[in-house]
Specification:
heterodimer, A: mainly alpha, B: about 325 residues, MetI-like fold
């Protein structure tokens, strides 16, 4: 077993005076999962930023005479039933996929991080009550409650993202609470309290910085989950609404012409798969890097 | 064991209360007049609107409506669909069998894939088998279940023409044939996570001292892996597999759409699309109750597998 671990773990650099940041980047560079994931995520970000420049056609510009044209040099991934270029729609679709998922995670963090810290720092019945409530919410898939939200407020990316963002709160709050519980028992926190520092200073100066690593890992993995959930809502016609370019909606449209024009559904499906895989790989890799004990498993 | 079940049953009450409260108030936050929506148009006489409000208790304060809804719920009355003009309970009972069959087949298929693959990956750690299992777990967890379903249709129905792609079948063997592809699509998504957990739990178990002792006693490799390591790895596997069974109900919503199965998931989505609130409310609460019961079953399963839980010594 020792030999196995030695084989799988990269050898540490000789210098021992590395700062923790350079050690982090060194580990990151030597983690294949993290690097592949990072490459996919960076590619996605490039697509989002450069969409108007690199996209061969306007994503909403249709030509019914060009309806469901198979892949060709003029349209590398073919066209949809409205004659719109699928490649261009895929490139622009990255915006709603990643943007929506980022909104979900941002909302969950803005609410979840303070709740997690507050629950752990206050302790007692506050902690007990909050933990019980989110334990119950964690037992249910967010998508189920998102259906009820869409039923009430109607479909749309923003509404879906807000609903999912609220339903993702327990995922992040639970992690932050765990870190805070450990930090508040450490000697330096006790010392800061004994010196009369206010709670806000202890939380912002000491506890919050220690939450950063686990929050980064959870954020990356939550983006992957959120992309899947948002794509599912769009696929069901409850998320992004046509004519906006969106991978889930394209997959749903592609299903209707699957027998004659499979390229539409397949290209949209692969776009979702690769993007989610990228965030999953990056999240897994970051967890290995930030918690090397996991890497030995 | 009876005490364990009784304690867990008691915790169901607050859980159901929270979920029903969330669902009820969400649905009652609908912008606009629900009575007008129920009437299906804008040209409705005030007398008719008043009658609808009275029938559905919409003329009472929201808290009273909630109390009445809860009391009906306790009696098993989930209300009446205002689109289909039928009892929600009847609609659920009608659609449930397909979903239960789909979820059960998928669950069994996922275990049949994940457990052997996870064990093999752990035993052959750091070999190409482990790499394949890890890649399967990563890709399976990253592929949306509806896309996996579409790929299955393209390959097995259109290209190879081995299996049907639409409908739940007409009973018996026909149902098994029709549900195979949807179950495989859902089962693969599920197996991805269970494979990972099985591998991780088996790696942990195989590195324990008692395994070395068993090997030193000259036990066969098969006996060490299955009788000693696997039995101890079962608790995390049952936890994840049990939770996954609950999530199958939501996965089945998506798979039912792809394969046109018309189960409970389709009922819920159709209701969301036409804003048939009593059905959305009833189906969501029903699925939530199923979730809770499945979690209870998982807890009881711990008791069977792990004596420390059974006798109150562990979690």
């Amino acid at each position: 077993m020792e030999a196995d671990v030695a084989l799988t773990l990269p050898t540490l650099p000789e210098q021992t005076s590395h700062s923790s940041a350079s050690m982090f980047f060194w580990r990151l560079r030597h983690n294949p999962k993290a690097m592949i994931g990072l490459a996919i995520v960076l590619l996605l970000l490039l697509l989002i930023l450069l969409a108007p420049v690199i996209s061969p056609y306007d994503p909403n510009d249709g030509d019914l005479k060009q309806s469901l044209v198979p892949p060709s040099p003029a349209h590398l991934l073919g066209t949809d039933k409205n004659g719109r270029d699928i490649l261009s729609r895929l490139i622009f679709g990255a915006r709603s996929a990643v943007g929506g998922a980022l909104l979900v995670v941002l909302i969950s963090e803005v609410i979840g991080v303070p709740i997690g810290i507050w629950a752990a720092y206050r302790g007692g019945w506050v902690d007990e009550l909050i933990t019980r409530i989110w334990d119950m919410l964690l037992a249910f898939p967010p998508l189920l409650l998102a259906f009820a939200v869409v039923a009430a407020f109607g479909p749309g990316l923003e509404k879906s993202a807000i609903a999912l963002g609220i339903l993702y709160v327990p995922f992040i709050a639970r992690v932050v609470r765990g870190v805070t519980l450990v930090q508040k028992e450490l000697t330096y926190t006790e010392a800061a309290k004994a010196m009369g520092y206010p709670s806000s200073r202890i939380v912002f100066r000491h506890i919050l910085p220690n939450c950063v690593s686990p929050v980064i890992v959870v954020t990356t993995l939550d983006i992957a989950y959120a992309m899947l959930d948002l794509a599912a809502l769009s696929f069901l016609g409850l998320g992004v609404q046509p004519p906006t370019a969106d991978w889930g909606t394209m997959l749903s449209e592609g299903q209707l012409v699957l027998l004659t024009s499979p390229w539409l559904a397949v290209s949209a499906g692969f776009a979702i798969l690769v993007a989610v895989l990228g965030f999953n790989l990056l999240g897994d890799g970051l967890r290995d890097v930030l918690d090397p004990r996991q890497a030995q498993r | 064991m009876a005490r364990l079940i009784a304690t867990r049953l008691l915790t169901l009450i607050p859980m159901m209360l929270i979920i029903t409260t969330i669902v009820f108030f969400l649905v009652h936050m609908i912008p606009g007049d629900p009575a007008r929506l129920m009437a299906g148009g804008t040209r409705v006489s005030p007398a008719n609107l008043a009658k609808i409000r009275e029938t559905y208790n919409l003329d009472k304060p929201v808290v009273t409506q909630y109390g009445l809804w809860l009391s009906d719920l306790a009696k098993g009355d989930l209300g009446r669909s205002f689109r289909q003009r039928r009892e929600v309970t009847d609609l659920i009972v009608e659609r449930l069998p397909v979903t239960v069959k789909l979820a059960s087949f998928s669950f069994l298929l996922s275990l049949a894939i994940a457990i052997p693959l996870g064990i093999l990956a752990a035993v052959k750690r750091n070999t190409w088998i482990d790499l394949v299992a890890t890649a399967f777990a990563l890709v399976g967890a990253s592929s949306p279940v509806f896309f996996t379903g579409i790929l299955m249709i393209l390959l097995f129905s259109f290209k190879l023409q081995w299996l049907p792609s639409i409908g739940p079948g007409e009973g018996g063997w026909d149902t098994v044939v029709h549900l195979f592809l949807p179950s495989l699509a859902l089962g693969i998504s599920l197996a991805a996570i269970t494979t990972r957990i099985t591998r991780s739990a088996m790696v942990e178990a195989l590195t324990q001292d008692y395994i070395e002792t068993a090997r030193a006693k000259g036990l066969s490799s098969r006996s060490v892996v299955f009788k000693h390591a696997f039995r101890n790895a079962l608790v995390p596997i049952v936890t994840v597999a049990g939770l996954q069974f609950g999530f199958l109900l939501v996965g089945s919503v998506l798979v039912e759409q792809v394969f046109g199965l018309g189960g409970l998931g389709s009922l819920l989505i159709e209701a969301v699309q036409v804003r048939d609130y009593p059905v959305v409310q009833g189906a969501t609460v029903f699925i939530a109750a199923l979730f809770i019961l499945i979690n209870l079953a998982v807890d009881v399963a711990y008791g069977v597998i792990d004596p420390r839980v059974r006798y109150g010594g562990g979690a």
